[in-house]
Amino acid sequence: MKTKHTFILLLILSTIPFVLNAQGKIAGKVIDKSTGEPIVGANIIIEGTNLGAASDIEGEYVIVRVPSGRYNVAASYIGYQKVITQNVQVLNDLTTRLDFELTPSDVKISEDIVVVAQAPLVKKDLTATEARVTSEEIRQLPLQDLNSLITLQAGVNRDAGGGIHIRGGRSSEISYLINGISITDDFSRSQALQVETESVQELQVISGTFNAEYGNAMSGVVNIITKTGGSKFQSNFEVWTGDYLSDHTDVFWNVDDFNPSANFNLQASAGGPLFNDDVHYFFAARRYYDGGYIYGRNIYSPQGRYKFENGQLVENPGDSSYVSMNSSDRWSGQASFSWQMFDNLKLKIDAFGSSEENRFYDHVYRLNPYGTMGGKSAGYTFFANLTHLIHQNTFQEFTVAYKYNDYKSRLYEDPFDPRYVHPDSLNVPGYHFLRAGTNLNRFQRNTRSVIIKWDFTSQIDKINLVKFGVEYQTDNVFYENINLIPAVDENGQQLQPFVPAIQTIDSPQHDRFERTPDKFSAYIQDKIEFESLIINIGLRFDLFNPNGRIPVDPSDPNIFNPFKLEHIYKDANNDGKIGLDEQTETNKFTLEEKEKFWYKETSVKTQLSPRLGIAYPITDKGIIRFSYGIFQQIPEYSQLYIGDQYKLTSAQGIQGPFGNPDLKPQRTTIYELGLQQQFFEDFAIDITAFYRDIRDWISSSQPIPTFLAGISYSKRINRDFANVRGITLAVNKRFTNNYSFGVDYTFQIAEGTNSSPDQEFFSQLNGAEPTKILTPLDWDQTHTLNANVYIGGETWGASIISSLHTGQPYTPTFIAGAYTGRNVLAGLANNSRRKPLIARVDLEVRKNIKILDSDVQFFVKVFNLFDAKNPVLVFGDTGKPDFTIEQLQVRDYDPDWFVYPNFYSEPRSVYVGTKISL
C-alpha cells in the first residue's frame, strides 16, 4: 500500500515544472528628476542576467526570482540619460528597494550616470531575527569552517561537546539547508555533509520566527546559499599550514612540539561561463587536515604486555611515541551547473559531498591509544532544479534531491581480526589507564533520502507576494550496532586463544534494523508590503508516518524472548480476529508468524503551524517588529527506532531506555519583539526580546512493569518541557573609513526539566523522583558577548574575532567524608553551580600584491591568540577543571589520571598561507 501511494504522489508531482530556490526581489520607482513625476515604461535591467521589468503607470516596478548576490542594475528611457546603480545587494527572501531618478536629455550623452549602492543597514521587511553574512564578509573573517561563523551570531552558543544551540534549544532543533533544501541528517539532526566557506554566497541564520516555508525545526534555520558561476571566469587557490603552539604541556602532552606542516588546508574553486553566457559552472574542493592537540602515549600494546613469538612468551611494549587522539581529516567539494535553456526556463544541477575521518579522545585509553577507535563519516547530495517563468512576476519551482550520509566506527575492518583481544583486558581498577585491550564495539548507520519539492510564487499585485508549495520526503534508515563477544565451542567453553564472535540479532549485543519513514508538508504564506507596514503571514501543514511498530502487550514486549509461556493471541474462531487461547505457546510460532499478532502499527502524525510577523517602520531608518509562531518538529530517528525491538533480559531492575516509533512531534511557541534603528550614516542597532515555550520534548518514561516481577523498562516518551527567555543587542558599522565592526550581546535564561532524553532514565537508576521543576539546561549561557573588527585598505587587512561568555552550569557533587567538621548539604540541585568564564580571540592579518593578472594574498591566522586555558568541563566536587578532592582521598591511582585534556577547549594554533585569485 505504501509503495502504491508513493508512486501516485511521484506521478502527480512529476507533471509540475522544476525550480530554483534562494531568491530575493528588487522593487522601486522611476521618476523624472526635474519634475518628480513617475516615468511610465522605463526599462530596468539587471546586467549580466535576463531579468528585468518595466515601470507601470505610477512609475513602479518589481523584479522577482533574483538570486542572492550583488548586481549592476540599469534604468533607461527614451529621452533620458541612462542610470546604472552598481553593487546592488540582493538577499534571499528579502526585498531590495532601488529607486531611480532619470535626467532628461535633449542630446545623446555618451556616458551613463553611474551610482554605487550601499546595502541598507536596516532591512525594513525583516519581521523576525536573522543574521546574514555574505561571501565578501566571510572572506574578511578568521574562520576554519562554517560552524565557527554560525556560533558568532547573537543567540547562538556551543555546549561542552561542541553542539550548536540556538536560543536555548537542544542541538537537535536546528534545520540545515542548502539553497532551501534540507541537508539535515534526521537520524541525529546534525548536518549530513560539510559545506565549506569558499562555496558560500550567503549564510542565513534565522533564530527568530521563520516563515511557513521552513519546517521541521524548533529553534532555528541555517540556510546556506551557494555560489554559481558568473559571466566572467574566476578562480581561487588557497593553501595554509601550521600547528598548535602552546606551553600548556601540563594538560596537552606534546603540544610544545611545533611542526609547521602538522595541520594543513588545500582549497580551490573555479567558475564562469561554459560555451556561452547561457551556461555557467562552479567547482570547489577542499582537503583539511587537523593533527589534533590531545595526545596519548603508546606505552602499552592493545594486544597486551606479552605475546607468544616462536613458542616463547616475550614482552610486547609500545614504542612510547606520542599519538594524536583527536585528529580530523576531511575532503569536501561542490559542483554546480546552470543552463538558461529558454527565456522562461532555467536548469540548475548541484552536487555536494564530504568525507571525514576522526579520532575521539577516550581518557582510559591514554596510554593505549591504538586500542580505541574513531569514526568515519561520508555524505553527499544531488539537486536537480528548473525554474519556469509563467509570467513576468509569477514563477513555479520544482526541486528533486537525493541525499545520503553514512557513519561507521570500528577498530578493525574485519570483525574477526586476530588483533582483537578478550574483553577481560578492559577490566582495570578505578583511576588506572588500560594496560591492554581493544574496543569491541562495531557501529554503522546510514540514511538515504529522496526529496521532491514544489513552490509557486507570484507578485499578484504591488502589495502581495504570495508563495505556496508542497514537499515530500521518503527515507531509508539502516542501523547496526555490534558488541563482539568471546566465541565458544560446542560445549559452551570459550575458545583459547580469544576469537571474537557476533551474536544473532535476537541478542541485546547485536542491533540491526531498517526503517522507512515518510514526510509530507504543505504551506501557504503571503508577504504584504505597504509603505508603512510589512506583514508576513502563513500556515504550514506537516504529516509524518514513522512506518513503525509497537508491542501490543507492554508487559511482554520482547518478541525474541517472551516472558509469558502462554499467550492470548490466536484466531480461535477462524474469523480473522485475535481471540483467547491459553493453551497456545509462543514458541510454537515462527518469528514471522508472531510478528503478525505481536505488534500494532504506529499512527500517522499531523500538525498545523501558524506563523505571523509584522514590521512597522517608525522612521525612514527605523522599524519595530513583532512575530509569533508555533513550530513543531519530528523527533530524531535515533529516539524513535534505536531499541524499538525491546530486547529485555531477565536481569532485575530498570532496563532501557528503548526507542518509541509512536512519539508525537515536539512543539514550541515563540514570541519576539524587536527594534532596528540606523543612526549616523554607517551605524545600526538591533534590539530583540524573545520568549520560547517548549513542550513535548523527548524524555524517558517511568518504569513500565513486565510480566516478571522485579523487571521493568523505560521507553522514550513526550514529557519534558522548557522555556527560554532573553534579550539580544547588536551594533554594526558598515565598512567605511577603512574599518568596520560588529558587536552583539545576548542575555538568556534557558531552563527545563531535563537537558537530554537520557537524563530522566539515569535519575531513576539512582532512585530519584520524577523531575517536576525547571533547572538551568546544560548549555544555558547567561551572558554572551561577541565582537569582530576589520581594518583594511586596498592591499592589506586585519580582522579580529573575540568572544566572552559566562560559564555554563554543572551539578555539584558531594564526596562522603571529605567535608568533616563542615555543614554540607548532600543532594544539591541539578545544574546549580557555574563553570568559569571563557574568553577567546582570533586574528588574521593579510597582504595583497598583484602579479601579472593574478591577485596574490599572503596571510597569517592565529586562533586563540592569547592561548587561553578555557575550561569546558569541571569536576563536580570543586567546580575546577584541574583539581578534585578525590585525588586527595584515593591512594592508588596512575600519574596524570586526574589530568583530563578534554576538559579544556583547544589551545593556540598558528597558520600561514597564500591565496591566488584569477
UniProtKB/TrEMBL annotation:
Alphabetical UniProt keywords: Cell outer membrane, Membrane, Receptor, Signal, TonB box, Transmembrane, Transmembrane beta strand, Transport
Ranges of residues in domain TonB-dependent receptor plug: 123-221
Presence of the UniProt keyword Transmembrane in the record: yes
Span of domain TonB-dependent receptor-like beta-barrel: 378-865
Compartments in which it is found: Cell outer membrane
GO molecular function list: siderophore uptake transmembrane transporter activity
Signal peptide: 1-22
Topology of this chain in the membrane: Multi-pass membrane protein
Biological processes annotated in GO: siderophore transmembrane transport
A GO CC annotation given for this chain: cell outer membrane
Residues in coiled coil: none
Stated family: Belongs to the TonB-dependent receptor family.
Protein name per its UniProtKB record: TonB-dependent receptor
Species for this entry: Melioribacter roseus (strain DSM 23840 / JCM 17771 / VKM B-2668 / P3M-2)
Higher taxonomy: Bacteria, Pseudomonadati, Ignavibacteriota, Ignavibacteria, Ignavibacteriales
